[in-house]
Amino acid sequence: MALNIRTQKAIGGAKAGRRDPFSELVAAGRRGPTEPKTGGPARARRSISEQVANRIMAMIKSGNLRTGDQLPTEAQMTIAFGISRPPLREALKALTIMGVVDSRQGGRYTVTDLSPSRLVAPFNVMLSVADYNVAEHFEARDLVEAQLARLCTERASPDMRQRIHKLAVDGQAFHHDPVAFRLLDIEFHEALYVGAGNHMLCALAQGLYDVGLDVRRIASAMPYVIEKSVRQHVEIAEAVMARDAEEAVAAYRRHLDHVRESTVQSMPLTKPR
């Protein structure tokens, strides 16, 4: 009875204005089932975790949770969602990895990063590498990023074109330094996204880029992968400099094909033994 009274007070005390996080999570927990009917225990746990993570993100998108807000305790959230702690902790771990929440002393989580790229990142992939689908991922990247390469070629300012070209050429110094190359690679791709002048597509592309990074870290250390990526970056940059949109798209797609193939080759190395 004490549990029901506490829950009722949490809900009733938030009738005016924005609800407190516990009340919102109680309400979210009542929307639809949280326990899937089929699949093994591991898949069931991932499915529940995905639902919980997406509900928390929905609260952030709607403004019910904002930067600096503290989430309820784990005990409160298990009550609100009607779940056990393991799937809740998987959801919180994914949100922490994405930089959306931060774990503070005492085990409480605080909302930190509300950037668009974080808000659009797909949770089903973030939560489990085992669920990563290379074909779907690169199909999505092609649809979004090839269009951004076209728009960047058509719209980028002279300064942005120079920056893209410089980043591409500078990659030649990092053929044998995977960590440095990965940092430069992020800068190169984000410069292309920004140069397109479409904030929504840019956010989508940044989210898609972040998917599968653990796998691509392995791929970047494989022989000749960086060298080929650098050559392709230069080809893309030269097309952007020449304002040749068709060649920029073609070069970008060749690059995505290379990244996809090296990702597939590296995946057996990421599987637990």
Written overview of the protein:
The protein is an all-alpha fold and 273 residues long. It folds into two domains: 2-113, Orthogonal Bundle (Arc Repressor Mutant, subunit A); 132-270, Four Helix Bundle (Hemerythrin (Met), subunit A) (Up-down Bundle), CATH 1.20.120.530. It has helices at 2-12, 21-29, 41-62, 74-81, 85-97, 116-119, 123-127, 134-155, 158-170, 178-195, 199-210, 213-220, 225-241, 245-270, and strands spanning 101-103, 109-111. The protein has a two-stranded antiparallel sheet. Helix 2 runs parallel beside helix 4, helix 9 (158-170) runs antiparallel to helix 13 and helix 10 packs antiparallel against helix 11 (199-210). It is elongated.
Strand fraction equals under 5%
Biggest sheet architecture: 2 strands, antiparallel
Low-confidence stretches: 1-17, 32-39
Topology as a string of helices (H) and strands (E): HHHHHEEHHHHHHHHH
The end-to-end distance, rounded to whole angstroms, is 48 Å
CATH class of the largest domain: Mainly Alpha
Mean pLDDT: 80
CATH topology of the largest domain: Four Helix Bundle (Hemerythrin (Met), subunit A)
What's the Cα radius of gyration? 22 Å
Secondary structure category:
mainly alpha
How many helices in DSSP terms? 14
Strand arrangement within the widest β-sheet reads 1-2
User: Oligomeric form of this entry?
Assistant: single chain
Count the strands? 2
Q: State the shape.
A: elongated
